[in-house]
Amino acid sequence: MKPAILEPRARKDLLEAVRWIAKDNPKAAAELRKAVAAAAGRIGTHPGLGVERPDITEEPIRFLILTGYPYIIAYDPFHAPPLILRVLHGARDIPHLMGR
Questions:
Q1: CATH homologous superfamily, domain 5-97
Q2: Which residues pair with 52 in a beta bridge?
Q3: Using omega within 30 degrees of 0 as the cis cutoff, is the peptide bond preceding 81 cis?
Q4: Which residues pair with 88 in a beta bridge?
């Protein structure tokens, strides 16, 4: 399967996170980018990998915690390939950012 595709909003989320982290640690910023790319590959191969969170959204969106990072990937598993909608820091107000 093809890797999941980052929607424009998710690309912006990732770019903002990478820029913020790169101010203090460029290596960590590059590693975050690689981790998201690896997660996109896993999501593309296994779209059901994440969990549904009806407390966050009623949409058929799944959420995957990015291993080793405080980030959550929100994606639509029903597209081929899946669409990554957001890349969000776990400390943010996820329900609000997802439109709830």
A1: RelE-like (3.30.2310.20)
A2: 62
A3: yes
A4: 72
Q: Which residues pair with 63 in a beta bridge?
A: 51, 74
Alpha-carbon span 78 to 61, nearest angstrom: 9
pLDDT in tens, 42-99: 999 999 999 999 989 989 999 999 999 999 999 999 999 999 999 999 999 888 888 7
Q: What residue type is assigned to position 8 of the chain?
A: P
| 73 contacts 43 by C-beta, under 8 angstroms | yes
What's the confidence (pLDDT) of residue 97? 86
Q: Which amino acid is at 58?
A: E
The structure tokens listed for 34 are 């690689």
